[in-house]
């Protein structure tokens, strides 16, 4: 059965879904509802059935799946209304503003026996998949630290994103992607979370944050987002006991892996002189003790998100972005907000 998609909130992200999901076999975008009449008109001009009333949109029997692409503070009520109308539901990230809100949404999906998932599209980012493959293939040895960052210099956040009451701020906006990426690849659970949030140019919300996730395995992941950083560090920096990786950008156009080779234990490190004194530990490794590897190849396409939704509706596949995983990410985000408020690391409870 094709996905017959109706969109709630025909703004920037909805137009992206309209354009890109329409190209996927078995996915038809057919309708949109928005509280803003100008957006409904735009949807109609782009070939969709436009609705100005939610009840009329939800009564459209041709729509079997609803995408909620509104500001974050109304995701819960709109998703539940759609599920109560018998529709499968995809919600844009962040799914909701708290674990409690999400639990109500999960309960609605179970009560109505409908699909419920979240557009965690950055699970399909090329840079992320390459980093993950390097770690999982053991190219770095035992990994003890992962740093994931996005640095930009735009500064001012626009529209609803700049206000807490609409679910604005970077922890909800990019934090939810970057935390999801890390949790989705880790076999071990987060034991504690420490976070610092800042409002550098946007007074009502966080526009710079650092979150430290401490895993049961001993690994630490640092996640950092800054909207006012006029210099930037690599997208990924990962260290293991036999190698290290950096990737500079989303496309992984530049980056590298350096690993120790068999000679590493035999070739002694040399002492070098710095302007104020000698050091051995911080001298470069002799060239013949290390190998420089290409980043591994990955074959990845975001379209798998919608193909999976289509196949789950047809009973042919298991859901990729599971509500339980989204709940885990949301509980880590809650812990990060709590850590910032208390100044303490927050222990996770399972
Ligand atoms: P936007 O402001 O461009 O569009 C939001 C639209 O929702 C507007 O047209 C607005 O009129 C409409 N709207 C507001 N309240 C409504 C309501 N109660 N009922 C119906 N319509 C309503 O915002 P955006 O940038 O498109 O973001 C929308 C969602 O998409 C957010 O949750 C955001 O986090 C998410 N998003 C996800 C990604 C991603 O990569 N996954 C990227 C950008 C945005």
From TrEMBL:
InterPro entries, A to Z: Gfo/Idh/MocA-like_OxRdtase_N, Gfo/Idh/MocA_oxidoreduct, GFO_IDH_MocA-like_dom, NAD(P)-bd_dom_sf
Keywords of this entry: Oxidoreductase
Annotated Pfam families: GFO_IDH_MocA (PF01408), GFO_IDH_MocA_C3 (PF22725)
Keyword Cell membrane among record annotations: no
Residues of the signal peptide: none
GO molecular function list: nucleotide binding; oxidoreductase activity
Sequence ranges assigned to domain GFO/IDH/MocA-like oxidoreductase in this UniProt record: 128-245
Keyword Oxidoreductase found: yes
Domain Gfo/Idh/MocA-like oxidoreductase N-terminal: 4-118
Family to which this protein belongs: Belongs to the Gfo/Idh/MocA family.
Protein name: Oxidoreductase domain protein
Native organism: Mahella australiensis (strain DSM 15567 / CIP 107919 / 50-1 BON)
Lineage: Bacteria, Bacillati, Bacillota, Clostridia, Thermoanaerobacterales
């Amino acid at each position: 059965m094709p996905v017959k998609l109706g969109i709630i909130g025909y703004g920037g992200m909805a137009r992206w879904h309209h354009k890109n999901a329409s190209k996927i076999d078995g996915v038809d975008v057919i309708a949109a509802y928005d509280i803003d009449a100008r957006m409904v008109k735009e949807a109609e001009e782009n070939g969709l059935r436009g609705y100005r009333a939610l009840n009329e949109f939800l009564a459209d029997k041709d729509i079997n799946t609803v995408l909620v692409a509104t500001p974050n503070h109304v995701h819960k009520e709109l998703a539940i209304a759609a599920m109560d109308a018998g529709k499968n539901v995809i919600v844009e990230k962040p799914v909701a503003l708290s674990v409690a809100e999400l639990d109500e949404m999960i309960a609605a999906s179970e009560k109505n026996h409908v699909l419920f998932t979240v557009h965690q599209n950055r699970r399909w980012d090329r840079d992320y998949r390459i980093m993950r493959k390097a770690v999982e293939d053991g190219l770095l040895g035992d990994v003890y630290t992962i740093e994931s960052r996005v640095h930009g210099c735009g500064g001012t956040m626009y529209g609803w994103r700049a206000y807490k009451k609409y679910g604005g701020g970077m922890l909800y906006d990019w934090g939810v992607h970057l935390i999801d990426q890390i949790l989705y690849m880790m076999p071990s659970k987060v034991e504690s979370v420490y976070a610092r949030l800042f409002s550098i140019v946007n007074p009502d919300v966080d526009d710079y944050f650092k979150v430290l996730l401490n895993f049961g395995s001993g690994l630490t992941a640092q996640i950092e987002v800054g909207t006012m950083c006029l210099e930037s560090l690599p997208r990924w920096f990962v260290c293991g006991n036999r190698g290290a990786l950096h990737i500079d950008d989303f496309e992984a156009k530049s980056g590298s892996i350096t690993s120790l080779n068999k000679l590493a234990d035999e070739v002694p490190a040399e002492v070098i002189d710095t302007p104020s004194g000698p050091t051995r530990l911080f001298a470069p490794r002799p060239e013949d003790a290390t190998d420089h590897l290409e980043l591994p190849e990955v074959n990845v396409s975001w379209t798998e998100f919608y193909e999976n939704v289509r196949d789950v509706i047809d009973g042919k596949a298991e859901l990729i972005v599971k509500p339980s995983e989204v709940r885990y990410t949301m509980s880590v985000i809650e812990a990060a907000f709590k850590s910032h408020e208390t100044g303490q690391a927050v222990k996770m409870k399972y």
